[in-house]
Amino acid sequence: MAEQADGPALDEVVTFTSDLIRIDTTNRGGGDCRERPAAEYAAARLAEAGIEPALLERTKGRTNVIARIEGTDPSAEALLLHGHLDVVPAQAADWSVHPFSGEIRDGVVWGRGAVDMKNMDAMILAVVRGWARQGVRPRRDIVIAFTADEEASAADGAGFLADRHPGLFEGCTEGISESGAFTFHDGDGRQIYPIAAGERGTAWLKLTARGRTGHGSKVNRDNAVTRLAGAIARIGAHEWPLRLTPTVRAALTELAVLYGVETDLTDVDALLEKLGPAAKLVEPTLRNSANPTMLDAGYKINVVPVEAVAHVDGRYLPGGEEEFRSTLDRLTGPHVDWEFHHREVALESPVHCATFAGMRAAVEEFAPEGHVVPFCMPGGTDAKQFSRLGITGYGFTPLKLPDGYDYAAMFHGVDERVPVEALHFGVRVLDRFLRTA
């Protein structure tokens, strides 16, 4: 067995998670966020360990932290560890505890960011500080990036870093970040640990319908609201066709072996039924999707407006963007225009490689009863921006979670929280992987 994280690292990950939660870095979009206090906190913890951080901003207060730890093998490709510092809004009245209290109660850390993703930020800090105490150096260079603005456009965060400071990531070929290596209980005694090796692309859309304004009492066949409503109804009702990406094929294949069923990819629906609750790991990424989320039209009840606007959260699979575009052209029709409000690429990462094998081995060492499988994330992360630098991304934030803990509900949900033991497991697994990567 490899050397393990020291005891202080296990204490520190809990403290750091709680402390970071108490620093309110709510990102309301439109530039309404200030990550600098959290960035300064993270930078100070790195500096205490003899790691020299750089603080970088595109916009005042929207701060990113970058640091590099030199490896023992100068010829080895570097690895990027990245986590975002911002969080989505939280209404205190809806929570059992104040969302920015960082309260530690009954072995659980509570608050906004406990899972998305100040826990991973704290793990990274705890692991590298443990290395400093033990005199450990990784084989390959490790670049650490704590980013701003992931919960919006990433323009002040990973996008800014990739576009304006690419030299800081010199040599990085792979990166790891959020949403992977967590315990999924299938309800039948199996513990599955999905590691993300792909992401659907982001296609946030603005739809605009134009028509003829006029009095609300008169017949109007060129009503912009009617035109928009028709387009939105068609988008909401559309059944997207099945599209199996390499990552999803690998996930289905490994799950079929785990459940002892035939891997028949010609009848995916039948295969999913045999997988039971584990089918949830792949169902969101079998197809493109488009969900209408916002509507805006008119200013007075008896006036037909000249324009009506809607927004749609679209996601497309790797290789599915052209299908997505052509389908939206058809569904919106001739009287509704659409454009990308925000667009980011879909990602596909290899699962038959040394890095994925290393992540698998690290999880299995500390969860020998677990079963690691690849999966594709339905949403997106900063890995999209870093992919512009040729960095292949994986979702790897290891957490050993108890049965009944709804991991997916923690993301942007009420009463976000993470067990202390899950953080300890994360530090041990992350430390093991990074020492041997």
Report what the structure shows.
A hairpin with a 2-residue loop joins strand 4 (104-105) and strand 5 (108-110). It is built from 12 helices and 19 strands. The protein has helices at residues 7-22, 36-48, 118-134, 158-164, 224-237, 246-259, 268-275, 321-332, 354-366, 383-386, 407-410, 420-436; strands spanning 54-57, 63-69, 78-84, 104-105, 108-110, 142-147, 172-177, 184-185, 191-199, 201-210, 214-215, 289-297, 303-304, 307-316, 336-344, 347-348, 370-377, 392-395, 417-419. The strands form 5 sheets. Strands 1-2-6-3-7-18 form a 6-stranded mixed sheet, sandwiched between helices. Strands 8, 9, 16 and 17 form a 4-stranded mixed sheet that branches. It has 437 residues and is an alpha+beta fold. The radius of gyration is 23 Å and the shape is globular.
The backbone outline, from C-alpha atoms, is globular
Span of the ends, CA to CA: 15 Å
Instruction: Please describe the biggest sheet, giving its number of strands, its sense, and whether it closes into a barrel.
Output: 6 strands, mixed
Low-confidence stretches: none
**Percent range of helical residues:** 25-40%
The count of DSSP E runs of length 2 or more, i.e. the number of strands, is: 19
Beta percentage is 15-25%
- Using only C-alpha atoms, the radius of gyration works out to 23 Å
Judged by helices, strands and strand pairing, the structural class is alpha+beta
Mean pLDDT level:
97
Instruction: Name the strands of the widest sheet in spatial order.
Output: 1-2-6-3-7-18
Number of helices: 12
